């Protein structure tokens, strides 16, 4: 009887370990609901806090002041969204320009997106810097000792050279 209990306990432990391993693997491959719920709850708390602060700000305002405040807030949000949209459009245009000029698209991260002129100017500047660096690298690579030419004391005319080339006197 004692051996059977030991075998059963060992088997149960082994099954438990295997189940834990399976659960661990499933946990890695699946969506973590608890973490997601916690993050959602934090975001909700932040929104509630912002809402409370807004209500405190507008609590003592007159209706016309409150309307102006809300309008200003909406205008600010629209301006921010418009600026973000313009930046995205400029980034897309810059990407197309870089492809057209056969430049590396990693340059996108260092361009000036304040307006189209500045964006193109920054592309031109970077392209100029890259071309200058390339030219310096090529010139350095081509530098070397100039071939030594022997100085021939006898001068020969073109006709003599042709005759020698043809095998004539």
Unreliable stretches:
none
Bulk shape: flat
- End-to-end separation in angstroms reads 121 Å
Number of strands: 0
User: Class by helix and strand content?
Assistant: mainly alpha
Strand content: under 5%
Largest sheet: none
The radius of gyration computed from the alpha-carbon positions, rounded to a whole number of angstroms, is: 39 Å
Number of distinct helices = 5
Order of helices and strands: HHHHH
How is this structure best summarized?
The chain has five helices and no strands. It has 169 residues and is mainly alpha-helical.
Overview of the structural elements:
The protein has 169 residues and is an all-alpha fold. It has a domain at 62-141. 76% of the residues lie in helices and 0% in strands. The chain has 5 helices and no strands. It has helices at residues 2-29, 33-59, 63-100, 116-142, 158-166. The chain starts with a helix and ends with a helix. 2% of the residues are buried. The mean pLDDT is 82.
């Amino acid at each position: 009887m004692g051996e059977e209990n030991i075998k059963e306990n060992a088997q149960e432990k082994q099954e438990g370990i295997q189940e834990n391993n399976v659960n661990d693997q499933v946990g890695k491959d699946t969506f973590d609901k608890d973490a997601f719920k916690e993050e959602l709850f934090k975001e909700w708390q932040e929104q509630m806090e912002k809402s409370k602060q807004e209500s405190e700000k507008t609590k003592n305002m007159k209706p016309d002041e409150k309307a102006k405040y809300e309008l200003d807030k909406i205008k600010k949000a629209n301006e921010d969204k418009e600026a973000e949209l313009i930046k995205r459009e400029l980034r897309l245009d810059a990407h197309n320009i870089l492809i057209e000029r056969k430049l590396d698209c990693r340059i996108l991260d260092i361009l000036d997106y304040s307006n189209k002129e500045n964006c193109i100017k920054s592309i031109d500047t970077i392209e100029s810097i890259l071309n200058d660096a390339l030219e310096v690298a090529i010139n350095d690579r081509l530098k070397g000792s100039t071939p030594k030419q022997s100085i021939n004391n006898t001068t020969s005319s073109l006709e003599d050279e042709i005759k020698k080339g043809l095998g004539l006197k």
